[in-house]
Amino acid sequence: MYSDYLKYSRYIGKITHELRQAYYKTGTEEEKREIPLEPSQLNAKQGLGNFPAFYLQGQHCEKSDCGSCTNCFYSEFHYDSPTAKQIQAQCDYVINNFERLVLAEQYGTNEFDESELKFPNAKPIFMTFSPTGSFFSSKEFPEEVRLDFLKKLERKSEELKRDIVLHIEAHSLDVIKHKDYIRSSEETEILRRLHAKCILGFESSNEWSRNVLYNKHLPLNCFDEAVEVLQEAGIEPGAFVFSGFITHTDTEAKEDMLSSIRYLKRRDVFPVLMFANSQAWTLPDLLRWKGKHTLQEPFTVLDTVYDALDILTNGGKEFPGYYLIPEPVEGPPYPEGNIFYDRADIPDFSKTSSIQAHQILKNLRANRNIARFVTDWQRLRRENPDYAKYIERIKQKEANKTSKEERLTMALKYGVDNMPDYIAYRTQRDLDEKGAEEDRYKI
Ligand code: SF4
Asked: Does 3.20.20 match the CATH number of domain 2-440?
């Protein structure tokens, strides 16, 4: 079985790598030299939670360069490797504009344990700051620059007399590689004082989904070890859980995410629920362009969140613990295909239903009021005539599906056959839309 898995994942990796390289060839020499002075920025309504997020630009995620992670193209920039000084400039930009970029961007409800706060009479400040790939990668974020940034962040917290809750993102393999350092270093002490939460790339507890469909190259025992290292170091671990792998039906997507959440709950790892859009220059986007991949339906997203909350609250008997649902409509990069919008591909599904579904999710993100989410979702199911049609479609899809291997073999064949046409189409689209996205991701 594992040699078959390897065969498929190599194939997917090759397609993914070639698509990324084709994109990088569209950049000019000038673009490569212009390392930005600002990280990419998401405001509180666009990011992981109700707080702003900053991602360093310039150095590609190492996994992206290797062709991992089928659906992802977060490293969609042309720049040459930045120097430590150029990365530091992006960190300083956030520190020097902290009031506007971070303080003014706190929004809605965020959960924290008051007993752990140094300044219990003031609301803590939530934020994400990370490279595109891994916080602990010295290539993406050199140690001395990281330490300098964290010290400045801690000084901000002291000046403002408010705790900071810092979210960072990392690869499990980097955590393991630097485990002695993470267990005991000045940096870890500061991370603890900044209530750091480290979100690991995980995607799924299912081997086929994680290491074949997503091509993550992540053995489960490595993920478990990274979790232990973080827990021993006093850094709370979280994990990205992905829904919407290529070839999955909506029912499979939901079951996959729910199993992964159960897996994480047993290990005391909080989940970050990612619902897949379609990013340009990826295999899913190529397949979608040819009508061979459909994003999951908006109602599937809500149905999955409903069941996920049931697991996290143990059937409504407990507090859910920390969890995040990033805004599925945003990027970066801004998605080419969006779960909630332009869903002309779903028969008998009105634009109003899509907007209603998205609004219910946006409300949950903003106020984290689970009871209200449950009431709104139940009402929509009762009253919206599109819901019964949705249930019928989902059943039909399940009844008519072929084996997972057959579905993937067909998808890969379409991917290879249509790659030259897709590259020509995407190159032209990028030329036509140049500049629009950069503006969208500035606070
Ligand atoms: S999902 Fe994360 S680890 Fe994978 S390529 Fe994208 S940024 Fe890198």
From this structure: yes
